[in-house]
Amino acid sequence: MKKFLTVILAIIVFLYFSVQLFNIYHENHLLDNEAVLNIYPNLPDDKVDEFFLLPKGTYDSKKHSIIYSFIKADNYQLDYYYNLPEYNYDNLKNINCNESFSKEKHVRFQRNEIIDDGILYVRLLNHKQNGFDRGNDSRSTLAIRKLAISFTFGKINSTLVNSDGAIRYCD
Fold first, then answer.
1. What is the DSSP letter of 133?
2. How far is CA 59 from CA 23, 135, 138, in A?
3. The pLDDT value given to residue 71
4. What is the pTM of this model?
5. Residue among 81, 86, 97 at smallest CA distance from 39
6. What is the CB-side half-sphere exposure of residue 49 using CA atoms within 13 A?
């Protein structure tokens, strides 16, 4: 009986340390079913109306904002969009193709969290109104443009969005 309890205790200790080791690894690395998509918008204010096929003069940078997102796979709570972070784009030299994952900088998503159809939703929105979150409130949406993109799970993907569409940078 003593041997049996010792073996059970050893298995529990082994499993506990294995889980702790995996959690330490997972904090600093991406798994094969996770991805990071860095969006670098390069859309000048004078081309936004043309990009969304709106009449000239509709877009005002003080009244409107542009959000890049995917559609969530599980949207039962009326939270349809998985909004992606945007990074400052000045020129191609600012894009680091060899950057490593950092949980402070990057937002990772898993394959089962989004509808993986390769479509990036670029939405033109009014700023926050009536206390609703502008990123998920459909009443604040002025225009939506769907862009076909290519990204890979298990790595950090950098995508440039300009008036011509979305371009994958860093293969």
1. -
2. 45, 17, 18
3. 81
4. 0.77
5. 86
6. 9
